[in-house]
Every structure is written in structure tokens, then in C-alpha cells.
Amino acid sequence: MDEQTARGVVVGLACGDALGRPVEGWSADRIRRRHGTVDAMLGDGAHGLPAGAVTDDTEMARCLARSLTERDGWDPDDAADRFVAWFRDDPTGIGGMTYRVLSRVAAGEDWERAARDVWERSPEGRNAGNGSLMRCAPVGIAFADDPPRLVDVSMASSRLTHWDPRCTHACAALNLAIAAAAAGDPPVETARDHLLEHTTDPPDTVLGALSDAADADRDPGTLPVSGYVVDTLEAGLGHALAADSFREAVVSAVNNGGDADTVGAVAGAVAGARFGVDEIPAAWLDALEGSETLSRLAVGLTAVDG
Ligand SMILES: [Mg+2]
């Protein structure tokens, strides 16, 4: 993946997170009444942070990007260590399953055992959130040229906290779509083909989300907004693929409300792969917390060996 595109993916993810953060959990109606359209970095709102501040989506993606670049490849123990260090340092907006797993790993338990056990004990409805999907894009850059490896590491990166097959396959699907978009290939069709070729039993829900996201006649305002991983995969891809610009993709995702920062982050990563960092509005880049570091990490990800 070229550097301009890789920077688009990582910085795009962070822009979606930061634009959506003040209205996280709001309905589309409440956003419209309060702000009209959110198309600038706002302060306060949910989490009460300054304009351009990011949350768990970007912070966990940064952990993965640092691990992949500093270890020059996939090292799950190192990635888990970085998640735990982040967890101990006042994590912003941490999700339920991530909290339940990392609190056990921080107390000394092996991550694999903790993650699997938390998943097995979680009832349907609380077992397949979007917490691994929102952060997985750095893997899609590092292994963009090697689809089987991209699939394996995307799924492994999910299992650090999210063991459910819908989560692991959604991460693989998203990163395949990001790599395809960056290469100028059709994102959804390419992702579906590789998912069928390189995984066993991809869940029908994940394949269905891919088809629904690619429906060109769909009004993006009808895309789902929940924190369920299948919904976020469909919505993130749907907003990013329907838009004619990076800006349109992220504004469309965020103003739909619901899990606005995370749908914004997923849409931003895919739109960043389509349009590149040069198409991200300058005012957003200026306001974004830590954009230089994210840019540098993105360039480092393009040079990861294995
Ligand atoms: Mg968040």
C-alpha cells in the first residue's frame, strides 16, 4: 500500500472517531436538533473532551500499529501487553467486552484464556460488539499484499478481546476491503472472494453485511447504527462506499448517530483507503489529536515484513 493511502486509512479512522465522539450514543434526530449537521470537530459532548480528541477506537488502533511496526510483524503477546498498558492508563470510552477481558489480563491471566472465557460466558447480544473491528485497520495496511496472512492476523487481532466468529470474520472482511480499495479493486466483491477462499465457515451474517453494504440503491441514512459488529461492518462500509468524497463518507456515518464514533472510525478507514490522506479536510487534520504520530505509524506499517 502506498504511503499516502496508508496515512489515509489510519488518519481517516481517527478523524471518524474524533468527529463522532461528541455525539456518541445520540440519535440522528437529536444530532439534527442540536447541531444541524456535524461537519466540524466539536468540543465537549459525550466524554466532555476538546475538539479533535479521539477515543478507544483510535487509541487501540495505535496500540496495534505500534506493536506491528516495532515488532516488525504480528506478536500477539506484545499487542496484548500494549492493550493492558492502555487499559491501566484511563482508557477513553472502553467497551464492555474489552473491559471484561483486559481487567483479567491486567490481573495476570493469560489473554487467550481470558478472552475465550469472557466470550463463552457472555450472552447473545453482549458477545459480538464492534470493539475489535474498530481498531483492526493497521493489520490491513501491514498485510495488504498477502491476503491469507491478512486474514489470519486480522482474526487473531480480534481474539485478543473478541473471540466470536462474527467479530473475527468481520475484521478479516474489513481489512480485505481496505486492501482492495487501496489497490483499486472492488472492495466488497474482493473481500467476499478472499473470505470464502481463506476462512472456513464465514458466518452468513458477515457475508450478508458485505452484500448489504454494496447495495448502490441504498439510502445511507437507513444503514444500522448499533454497536453489534455485523451492523458496524455494514454501516462503515456502506457509508464509505456510497460517498463521493472522504468528507461525505464520514459526515454521513457520524450524523446517523448511534455508535457514531465507531461507525465513523470504520467508515473513515475505508474512505481513507479509497481517497487517501490528501483528500481529508485540512481543518479536520489541524484539529485532530496526534495526527503526526498516526501519520508516521501509518508509513511504518507499509514497511512491516511479516
Ligand atoms: Mg469510541
UniProtKB/TrEMBL annotation:
Transmembrane segments: none annotated. Keywords: Magnesium, Metal-binding. Gene3D superfamilies: ADP-ribosylation/Crystallin J1 (1.10.4080.10). Binds 2 magnesium ions per subunit. Its cofactor is Mg(2+). Mg(2+) binds at residues 55-57, 259, 261-262. Pfam families: ADP_ribosyl_GH (PF03747). SUPFAM superfamilies: ADP-ribosylglycohydrolase. It comes from the Archaea. GO terms for molecular function: metal ion binding. This is ADP-ribosylglycohydrolase family protein. It comes from Haloarcula rubra.
